[in-house]
Design brief:
The protein is of the alpha+beta class. It is 43% helix and 17% strand.
Length: 83
Amino acid sequence: MIASLLLVLALAAGEPQTAPARDKMEKSADTRDTMICKKFLETGSLVKGKRVCKTKAEWDHDRDNMRAGYNNAASCQATSSCF
């Protein structure tokens, strides 16, 4: 009798409620808008330095400019025709 009563109560209760889903962090629509911070240490110091924060697009642009500058310098040295 008690077993059947417990069975009826379990069926009447329905399915157990689940915990609400946690909110997921929103990702940036464009990964180029993601902020990236880098720390540049001062030469000769283990602690002193500065922190620079830019978007991924800005870091990529700076990197491309540096590569373009180095490529020009290397080609000028090889040909000696830049001056």
